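fwd from M.: "can u put these together and see what the complex looks like"

so here's what she sent:
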Amino acid sequence: MLPQPASLIEEMAAGLNRHLAERDIQDPRFVGIHTGGVWVANSLLQAMDLADQPLGILNVSFYRDDFSRKGLHPQVRPSQLPFDIENQHLVLIDDVLMSGRTIRAALNELFDYGRPASVTLVCLLEINARELPIRPDIVGQILSLPQNQRVKLTGPEPLAIELRNLDQE
Amino acid sequence: MRIQVSGARLLDPASGIDQICDIFIEGGKVAALGEKPSGFSVEQLIDARNLIAAPGLVDINASLREPGYGRKGNIASETRAAAGGGVTSLCCTPFTKPVLDTPAVAELILDQARDHGSSRVYPLGAFTQGLAGDHLAELVTLRDAGCVAFTNGLVPFANNRLLRHALEYASTFGLTVIFQPQDRDLAEGGIAHESAATNFRGLSGIPETAETVALARDLLLVEHSGVRAHFSQITTARGAELIARAQQRGLNVTADVAMYQLILTDEALLDFSSLYHVQPPLRSLADREGLREAVRSGVISAIASHHQPHEADAKQDPFAATEPGISSIELLLPLAMSLVQEGVLDLPTAIARLTSGPARAMGLNAGSLNVGAQADLVLFDPNGQTIAGENWLSTGSNCPFIGHCLPGRVRYTMLNGRISFKQD
Amino acid sequence: MNPACPLQLNDHGRLRHFLSLDGLPRELLTEILDTADSFLEVGARAVKKVPLMRGMTVCNVFFENSTRTRTTFELAAKRLSADVITLNVSTSSTSKGETLTDTLRTLEAMAADMFVMRHADSGAAHFVAEHVSPNVAIINGGDGRHAHPTQGMLDMLTIRRHKGDFSQLKVAIVGDILHSRVARSNMIALRTLGCPDIRVIAPKTLLPAGLDQYGVNVYHSIEQGLKDVDVIIMLRLQRERMRSGLLPSESEFYRLFGLSEQRLALAHPEAIVMHPGPINRGVEIESSVADSPRAMILNQVTYGIAVRMAVLSMTMSGQNEQRQLDAEKAAQQQEAH
């Protein structure tokens, strides 16, 4: 029932290559959203034979829209972008796309570093629960979950997808 | 009015009585103890079973704030508060505006006190004019106007020579001088006891030596001049020790400690609450233990409230900017009971330190309930409770004990055979 | 050492005011340092702002003058996208006839979300936190001799970034400890973070009583105190100390306690030198030492901005969380009726 990340990654790698070729994007830089997105990104880069590529890490804590309600998450780590953003084509990678707010925050943060030439969004999973008009360009699998269920990616090795019941937590 | 107080345990340390015993009062005086005198027809019967009857408490240091500090308190409210605490006689401080250095001020205070009738008031006169520490006040004139002793508070004399002369003058006329020993320069800028705890709070410290240096100097000058001396509001164990040694040498000096100083320590300052801002300051646990021991042994023969009511604004600022003082006279009996409950003092000693001890220190005809004495007494329930703050009488609510449930409950306070305070 | 300070913490133990390092658990101090690391990274970007406190108002209320601390707080708040007002209030509230409480009420009317305050009285920040309306956060920028918690944390960040694990370090604080809120905050932080050898070096007149009770080692000789030390924190000596009879002269102080190159050589070869600033060259510290690469004095300024951004955002976060908790509690009570 639950998808296996390993097989999804293979398909996503192929899809991404096609997508980049269609747009004539050569040598993009990869940015993963901490933590799950980074795991997925590393896996993806392996599958694309780009393991030596520098990987940017984004921690979007400072750009979230729920600060006034929830405050700051206690585990804050610095973002690390070891390359210039200005005029750069970017591939932004996250594990699970739900409401789309994390991606919104990530885009805002990226734009504070510079003006990218383009941003291609890659997600391992999409849960059919978007609240903003943000869609992945490449997605591993789209799932529909009941209200009280969530998915969580565990990793980094091996990557696995778990189902969580909110009521039990 | 002929009154019978029936069934109380009469505890009068001055006369050595501690037994269940009826008290018969006539014309404002104790007519008889134990057996009803023949022909005595009772007009008022007070059922005092399960209560303790003690001489009305004698509080030898309370600031009534009148004249001059109306926002902080007045004679009416503060003597009423005193009665609530079981007090029937109190000595009021000269720190008024104008200062109590003229007979007119003494008369004003005595008139007001008499009119309100809640407590006997014995004024303490200013030792120097304006309390400035240089010119002697007219001590004998003040004595004749009713002052029972003289004090300069925490304000020092301009120099030792002037202090020596002042003591010799007072000694000439057998006047009692009250010292509050604090070396101004060692204490300068200080607002709390100099200790590890307050140091880490960044509160300027008053070292122990501020008290002991002044105390040592004072004791030597007292010895030299022969003046009758009382040391008030001792806060250090070392200070109590110095007094003990002087007493052992044969020096006739007495001492008192503030009730709150036997309970609180500088640990209370950890949250910067201005309710604990007092001068002289709350000291360490070791000091408190030394003071308690001195009270037990009688080196310190009196406990006083050192009542200092303030308006709310005076305490509404960061610690250093607030005025020092605690308003606590109406809790004098319950606070004493808390010491008894804690095992610090036994009940007879506690009562002695609040009645005969202070009366003797100030030379007052009070603090005892022998036949013929004024009918000033307090009836309290040793097993009752007082919720501090429930019916607060003083104008000043600056009291850290408010909200606490204290042991013991004053049921009646009687002054001159008339009930000055009553509660269930 | 000291009881927990629940006034500063919300129901979940998160910061809602930042008054003193006293009573804050090690995990919380570590979290401040970690968050500050993230903000250092922000400070290295082209756009040095994050939108965390957008739309919020931070009011700097300085009852005691300080250009340095005030500007770093301003900068920190602006980099969090907050709006900043700075008020230099007269030092003596009584000279204006207005009590501190009244000044506060006036400021509250301006609907600030946060006050950063500096005051000459120890305990002033506590007092304000107790009397201000519930959703306003109070940040202590220094109160009398009591505490300067953001300085303490930025000093800890400096130490962690340059020397690593606290449990392996010897740290010496030199100079006027008695009058220093920085020294007090540093000692508390070092102890909480597990520093095993905290030293103070000063003459008796400049030391508060009872330090040994706090696990601090006292030295009166700088030569002995600096031996093998990893971190040297120099404190500023003020002119008044000479006038109040605590020291004979600046020159004798420098002779005995000044940090010269020779004395620096007694410390660990890679020891770092810190100073809260502004420095008195030739009084606490030899010029060449102040300018040497081992002196972290300018780094401290950069770290100061990051630490203040961390403290401001964490405190705002705790306030927001508490407001949420209170709303939930109120809603539950409503349902119960």
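replying to her w this: The beta strands of chain A are 29-33, 55-58, 89-97, 118-127, 138-143, 149-154, 160-165.
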